[in-house]
Design goal:
heterodimer, A: mainly alpha, ABC transporter involved in vitamin B12 uptake, BtuC, B: alpha/beta, six-stranded mixed β-sheet, three-stranded antiparallel β-sheet, globular, ABC_transporter-like_ATP-bd (chain B), ion transport (chain B)
Chain lengths: ~290, ~240
């Protein structure tokens, strides 16, 4: 019991990190499910790395200040989102190579900018997160973003799903797919930004994508996948923070590793296309 | 008085990268007609359908639908769809209510009943809770017809609706077409099976980038017209000058 609750009861910073991460764990994986279904998982990666130079620029100007780094990250993230969209149109949907180039450049630029002024611990903080970094502004940001994401996504749910399943029909019915998609990308940028204090820019996507990928093995239908993804993310955040505390690991990688363990469990034991379900031969039905 | 609109194409030209896919086509389909659009591969059939639906830019000429804001539904070829998407059959059929429910309004019990009836009408009564990933190509096409039924459109445009379906499914779907025709809707279908066209479709447009003939099927599909359609050059002429016609 002490192992599970001790750190959160005893230390305010652990409670703050937990509350912030749980808020994001409810919102971010839902975005991840749509990113996965659109086969644009790479876009999340690009956006996450794309915010890095902006955050680094904020850090250069104002030090470890959440508002400065967030505004820098938001500007950079939106620029990258627009750039990625333009690349996608220019390459007729075969944008993966160009996007890879984009995120490598963004990452290198971000690391270079931080190295200009900060030391290694600043860099580690930026890239991999730091539970102690979840101060009041950061916590407000995480809770605020989650609070914004859920209702907006609820409104965008049907158009996004329709656009994903049958873009031709969506177009014929006059669904404004581009508009909804732009709104969706803004949410992705905001979630990545909110996550970076606790998880770092490199790891922020982990809480978004890994539970989403794992959810495929728990449900055959979109809403079921959404519930499964949120449940997996909540477990990952909680046990990841505990592991980070007990084993003295950076919090971002600890949470993502925990999500990775749950993904592996899903692949092996999940009821939909899980390995066990495939190995165990049950007699076929009569009709 | 049929509820479907008359479709009038006047000197219609639609292009891909300035090369005409549909070139100076004039044709008329009367209100409530059941018409086939036939022609060789690359004849511009899909582009023509998309132009009529307002989904492809018209470079010259125009498409006129009679009546007051007729509702148009297009069944495209399946290639653009994500058939692995985690969605249940009944929800796909409910998509047909988009024009009424839009992004936010919920589907009522009556709407669900209607969707269920549409599934039954295409022989998929027991499939409501089945994910689409588990369906065969023919079953999936039936499902799309169920969605069309729910759409309740005045003008229905079908792009190769009987591709990859077996004889029985084709017969069932054909019965749906006849039902629409009987209700006075205008139905235009791109087809390749000329025997089927001669048997079931009173009217026909033979397209080979230009309109070879349009009218009663027996006249349109004369041996001479078929030969002319086959002569169409499929390739673009890269050095073609701007069209003066």
């Amino acid at each position: 019991m002490d192992f599970l609750f001790g750190p959160f009861l005893e230390f305010g910073f652990m409670r703050r990190a937990l509350v912030g991460c749980l808020a994001l764990a409810v919102a971010a994986p839902l975005l991840g499910v749509f990113l996965m279904l659109r086969r644009t998982s790479l876009t999340a990666e690009v956006l996450a790395h794309g915010v890095t130079p902006g955050i680094a620029a904020g850090f250069l100007i104002a030090g470890l200040s959440v508002p400065a780094m967030s505004i820098g990250g938001l500007i950079a993230g939106l620029l990258v989102a627009v750039g990625a969209g333009a690349l996608s149109r220019a390459t007729g949907g075969r944008e993966d190579a160009a996007l890879t180039a984009l995120y490598l450049i963004a990452l290198a630029l971000g690391v270079t900018l931080v190295s200009l002024r900060g030391d290694t611990s600043d860099l580690t903080h930026l890239l991999f997160g730091q539970v102690l970094g979840v101060d009041d502004p950061a916590l407000l940001m995480m809770a605020g973003v989650a609070t914004l994401t859920l209702p907006v996504l609820a409104l965008a749910w049907r158009p996004l799903a329709l656009e994903c399943f049958d873009p031709g029909f969506a177009q014929a019915e006059g669904v404004r797919g581009g508009l909804w998609h732009a709104l969706f990308l803004v949410l992705v940028v905001l979630n990545v930004l909110a996550a970076f204090q606790a998880m770092g820019t490199l790891m922020a996507v982990g809480l978004m994508m890994l539970p989403a990928v794992a959810s495929r093995h728990w449900a055959r239908e979109l809403s079921g996948m959404a519930y499964a993804a949120v449940a997996i993310a909540v477990l990952s955040a909680t046990f990841g923070l505990l592991a980070s505390y007990h084993l003295d690991l950076p919090s971002g990688p600890a949470i993502v590793l925990m999500a990775g363990v749950l993904w592996a469990v899903s692949v092996i034991a999940g009821p939909v296309d899980g390995l066990v379900a495939r190995w165990v031969r049950r007699p076929h039905l009569a009709g | 008085m049929p509820r479907g609109p008359a479709v009038d194409l006047a000197n219609l030209t639609a292009t891909h990268q300035r090369h005409p896919a549909v070139h100076h086509v004039s044709a008329h389909f009367a209100a409530g007609s059941l018409a086939a659009i036939v022609g060789p591969n690359g004849a511009g059939k899909t582009t023509l359908l998309r132009s009529i639906a307002g989904l492809h830019r018209v470079d010259e000429g125009r498409v006129t639908l009679s009546g007051h804001k007729p509702r148009v539904a297009l069944l495209p070829q399946q290639s653009g769809m994500d058939r692995a998407f985690p969605i249940l059959c009944l929800d796909v059929v409910l998509q047909g209510l988009w024009s009424r429910l839009g992004a936010f309004r919920g589907a009522s019990a009556a709407d669900r009943d209607r969707a269920q009836h549409a599934l039954e009408a295409v022989g998929l009564g027991g499939f409501a809770r089945r994910p689409v990933g588990a369906m065969s190509a023919g079953q999936f096409q039936r499902l799309l017809f169920a969605r069309l039924l729910v759409q309740d459109a005045d003008l229905i445009l079908l792009d190769e609706p009987f591709n990859a379906v077996d004889a029985r499914t084709a017969a069932d779907l054909l019965a749906v077409l006849r039902r629409w025709h009987g209700e006075g809707r205008t139905v235009l279908a791109v087809l390749h099976d000329l025997d089927l066209v001669e048997r079931e479709f009173p009217d026909c447009l033979l397209l080979a980038r230009e309109a070879i003939a349009c009218g009663p099927t027996a006249e349109v599909l004369s041996a001479q017209n078929r030969l002319r359609a086959r002569m169409m050059a499929e390739a673009w002429d890269e050095s073609a000058p701007a069209c003066a016609a």
